[in-house]
Each structure stands twice: as C-alpha cells, then as structure tokens.
Protein 1
Amino acid sequence: MMMTDNNASDHLHSELILRPVGVVRSKLKEPSLTAGEDDLESDHDMEGVMKDARKIRGMLSEIVIDSRFDGILDGLEHFSHIMVLYWPHRVPDEKRGLIKVHPMGRKDFPLVGVFATCSPVRPNPILITAVELVERRSNTLKVRGLEAVDGSPVLDIKPYNPHYYFVDDVRVAEWMKRAIQEKTRK
C-alpha cells in the first residue's frame, strides 16, 4: 500500500527520540572513515582499507546491554548470527550534511549520493551490520566482525534469518562489485 499525504513534509520536521539499549566495547578506537569538508576521508590507501576490512572481519568485540533490559536477550544464543543497529557516535552533527561522497573515500569510485553507500556520514547515522554471535553471557554478547568503534551506542539487535533477508537477483553498482572483489582477495 502506498501512503499519500499532501502534508508529508510535516513529518520531516518532527523529532524522533532513540534510546540506546547498550554499548559496543571494541579494540577499534577510531573510525576508519571521517567526514571532510566535501567528501569522505580515509587515513589509509586502498590496500590499507582492504587490510583493515579483513582484520575487522575476524575481530572480537562485545555488546553490553543495559541492565534495565534484563531478559531481552533470552533465546538469542540459539542463533549463529545477529543484526546489530548502532549509532556511529564519532560523526559530529555538523559533518552529517554530506549529500554526495566517493564510496569509502576512494576517488577511484564515482561520486554518488550518500544513500547509495554504507557510509557512516549520513543525515541519520544509523548503521547495521550482520555479525557472528560467538557467545552470550548474561547481558553481554561476544561477536565477531563488528565494525563499530568502542563506545558506539547500540540501538537494536535482531536475529539474522537467511530466509527472511534472502533476496533473489540482487544488483549492485559496478564500484561495489569491485570493492567486494578486493575485500575478498587474500
């Protein structure tokens, strides 16, 4: 069903309040990408970015859920992977105005709209990633492959269900195909 609303712009000016349910504890202390004046910036060259991506894929982190949500994780330990939604808190408010970026800060990729990327620099920096759930201890989850910086607020967690998230005939941009190929090379 398509919603039509002549006053749709009124909804764009309302405020949402998100309350974190937990926090990330990670060895990652600095984001790999930052917002420059008019584009993303990376401290690494292309090879360094790919090396970091491979390192993060194997890195262990913890997600500590606030004690006020006692019992909210019950049953999650039966899943091998989870989806983590988090807020990249190291992106300053004034840097969230970028509309177009070079994906991953790479000038060899085309300039595209921020919504065509997974960049943390976006109007509402809500990021999502699928990670391996290694262990659950009370209100703490040990996960592998979480790219969130230490201290990132966790907004939500969902079990990964390959049948629910499965999509046939996926198409991705040519630059993303290239990035995936580079990331998977050993």
Protein 2
Amino acid sequence: MGKPKVMVALRDLASVENLMTLAIHLWKGMNGELVALHVVEVPAATPLEVDDEILDHPGKEILAAATRVAKRFSVKLSTELLRAREAGEAIVGEAKDRGAELLIVGHRGSHSSVLGELLLGSTAQYVAHHRPCRVIIQIPPPKPG
C-alpha cells in the first residue's frame, strides 16, 4: 500500500489559506501525499469536455493559491482540476479513486437561522453522507454582529 493521502477540496480563493494550512498540519502527521482539488461545476447545457479557458480560469487561480501556501510550508502538493455537474459527487469519486485516507472540505457557514447552521451545504452534506474515508468539514466562525 502507498503513502497515505490527504485530499483538500477547495471551493474559492477566500477559503484557500485556512483549508490549506489545516490540511498541511494534518498531512505532516501522516507523512503521505497531499492533494488539492477544485471542481468546476458545469451547467447541464454545457458539455463537460468543452474547451473553455474562462470556465477553468477561477479553478486554476485557486489551485495556484494553494500551491503558494504549500511552498511557504515547504510542502510538495499535487493539484487536480476537475469538471463535473455536482461538486460533491466529483470530490467523493476522486477521493475513492486516489485512495484518500483523509478528506478536508470547507463550508461557508453563511446560514443565518439556527436550523440553517445545523444543516450543511449540499456539497458538504453529500461528502459527509458518501465519504469513502475520514472527513473534516471546516466551518468558519460566525461573523460578528
């Protein structure tokens, strides 16, 4: 069996710093492979394989930011940009395919109601319910006010 894999799914630039820092600290304790993943959700009307740099550009920026964080920690990082209809399914599928032992995902935590705070977003819910390995869902602290 190969080295243990830690996979971190990155949604947006705002979450890269916190999620990558968490992933790196956890990864160091496992001494394995670290993979950053971004899923471009493609609308049903658009073919998944369409050649469209505009579609992929934000994801490439997110993975470049992840690479910069990893370099600051002197960590080797593999990156993966995927296209899918649903991010949760793609994240779980990639974790299974790569044999991830730990999957880290973020959650915006932007719900304003108490009930909303108890419920995860659709991607985090899908990952939590279909996880192929241990999962950490990082929820940011509430905004002041």
